[in-house]
Structures
1.
Amino acid sequence: MPQLASAVERLSLVIEIGGMPVRVRTTDPVFLAMLLERYAGFLAASSERAEIEFDVDLTPSRFADPNAVVRVTQRLGRWTFERGDFRAEWEPVSRTGWIRQTANPYSIDAVLRIVHTLVLARQGGFLLHSASAVRNGKAFLFAGVSEAGKTTISRLAPPDATLLTDEISYVRKLDTGYVAFGTPFTGELAKLGENVSAPIAALYLLAKGSENRIDPLPPGEAVRSLLANLLFFAEDEELVQSTFHSAFEFVSRVPVSRLTFVPDARVWELIG
Amino acid sequence: MSRLYVARNPKVAARSLDGEMMIMSGRDSTLFTLNKTATILWQSADGTTPLDEIVEHRICNEFEVEPAEALVDAETLARELASHEILQISEEPIPPRNTVAGESR
């Protein structure tokens, strides 16, 4: 029987963040080029076996609000991610999914963040609203809400510090302890983190003040602050519970302090 | 007057840290930090001990307070926690199969 249509050529790239390769397939070479540029430094060989595979269906441009509330739900083993500017599904068992969006880099960025939070939640890790950097072989996390100083502390980093991210830190729990990985998830600095990792030595909650000082936080406050800064989207009781317990586990192993700082480079004399 | 029974909602996560009980709702990820009275109520909420007995034996023993007054406060607290789906409340004992609490250390 003759083929009615030829197969559509699928182009692909593998984006590897936190050691987890995700293959993204598209038929649009312009979109592929956009992603290659966006995730430069976080690309694995396209022949590499990916842990997750997404097919992207590009839709025509239309009004969509990327600031709309994201919904992440699970039914019968299939996750659905929805926001004003995209809709995606992912099935962990088959490790495959699809994304429907317009040709922009922001929607797929959100999908990647979501899928990483889901995978990490089952492994005791998480994404955290924090800048992070490596100094003297150790990673330091600087958490805080918008305007807390994540971008400022990143800008002030000395040359011997390697920036992992100025916005969203990637935390994995390994047998050896907690490790922070660089991410391409950027904030105001709009600079991709370096694709390196290091064991986490401390988590600092940022506060701007009139002097540079570090004050250890009581465990309860440390857990509350950590939970308040976690990225977590899923409406899923099991994952909520595991993320909650992960926060306690993290605080029991990693020192958490408040870092009060004036916006100049001397704050880094306290770090590392 | 009917008795009230309280049970921990199995769908919440709970941990005690340095005497502070923290609970996260599995429904909407809201975090609650319980005060001492609420912590006692939470820890005693086994679904089979009536609230008035919890008040008499656990709360009145801990705080110098009249049982009648304490019971009114405890009922208000229990209903508030139930409104957040942290506790289940019933005028009948709550079967154990529904009271598998989230981890509590």
2.
Amino acid sequence: MKTLWKLTWVEIKLFFREPTTMVFTLALPLLFLFVMGGVFGNDADPDIYRGFGPTNYYIPAYIGLVISSIGVISLPVHLTGYRERGVLKRWHASSISIWHLLGSQVLVSFFIAVIGSVLMIALGYVAYDINNPQGIGLVIAAFALGMLSFSALGFLLGALFPTTRAAQGIGMILFFIMLILGGAGPPPEVLPDAMRLIGDFLPTHWVIYGLQGPWFGLGWDTKASLIVAGVLVVATGLSVRFFRWE
Amino acid sequence: MPGIIEVSNLRKVYGSTVAVDDISFDVREGEIFGLLGPNGAGKTTTVECLQALRHPDSGRIRVLGLDPRTQGVALRRLVGSQLQESSLPDRIRVWEALDLFASVTPHALDWHTLLDQWGLADKKKANFGNLSGGQRQRLFIALALVNNPRVVFLDEMTTGLDPAARRVAWDLIRAVRDRGTTVVLVTHFMEEAEKLCDRLAVVDRGRVIAMDSPQALITDHAGTVCVVFSTERRDLEWLETVPGVAGIERFGNHVEVEGSGPLLALVAAALVEHDIVPHDLRVEQPTLEDVFLNLTGHEAEE
């Protein structure tokens, strides 16, 4: 346990010492919120944004986006970089186990996502007068589930990508697909059918629905949570299978 | 006494490249054991198999009585490891790495002491990425020792160290051995192997071609010793009757006696007996370099 905490703490410090990762993970979603909020305001229209005010809609959506960007970019790039440079080999030889590594990455990801989400919510309150989330407890549960799921996905991608370059390139593409089609870009209602169909296959979409359900007072989204949990189970299994130290 | 490490018929193949062909050796508790050979001889693959970082294709390994194939997790906790190709995150601080690696066992050493011993005290808060090559190398050795291992594997530990730092490192490694830790040293530096190892295995093309103490290897495989001195006397024929002497050459007052066995002592005794007491009597010993050359027919690349 001691090793897990130490490794987690070191990783948190490393995150704050690496400005580019920090800016991308924390500032980009804020920028999106700022732009989208500025363009669409927060007046509800029954035909789009599931009938909610755009900014009210986007806050939980961008929390989902923060979670997604950690899972498809930060974590895989971090892990492939570690593997490429021999850091994982160094950890391995010094008895740092896959569970220490996985555990610390999950904890650090949670930590970063919480900061990102708090910043987002704060901006929402200050700049756009958003509504309070309805079911805080369930929002937190959906957040935790989404974060675990995307941590596992990130670990899997980190195991599969051969190089850091691949992780950066493919991760970025995945991120923008998830952003645009997953529910954090244009309102889902205006997307053509084919794009909506693709969106339905993106885990980000279901993380966002899982957050929006309790946030808007629609209750726990069982379908979304089952899909997110399914991704968690499959990604964990596959990442343990495909994980390589070097 | 059974060896603390036992390796028999180890073999590891990567695709069509035979990295380790057939390697067997035993390491005794409390010694510095060397694996000496040129780059690509299979030394690193061998020690990585011993640390359960690679799975051998065949052969039997026991390290501290454990089988790396099935008991790798327990094994890695008991051994220390300095790897040839590994790294740390650029922005991790020196003390953070030591503190982290110390946390894997309750028996860890106080890393402050290691910082002092390895000359890193003033680099405690430096980022790994800002360390020089030599500082990194010393940090890796300190990291290999911080879990207070019973066996420590050092793979090319003095690469990147300047000659002075190398000598300091040798002294520290001897001190580590004297405190009871068994040291397995992988090196291609002949001088390092000769000065530091209690015993060593000469490895070439995935096989052990000789194994003994450096001195015994030199005596057995290096051929002739040369005793050198100066004298004005010309009548030295009687030296040829000294046991072991193979030939005498004169260059003015300078005399070179070639031979084998304990040549210096025998020649010295004979000289004293004939009232010759030269001030510059000395022996030019062959080195491990000569051993290597004789055994393999090719030179070890530096």
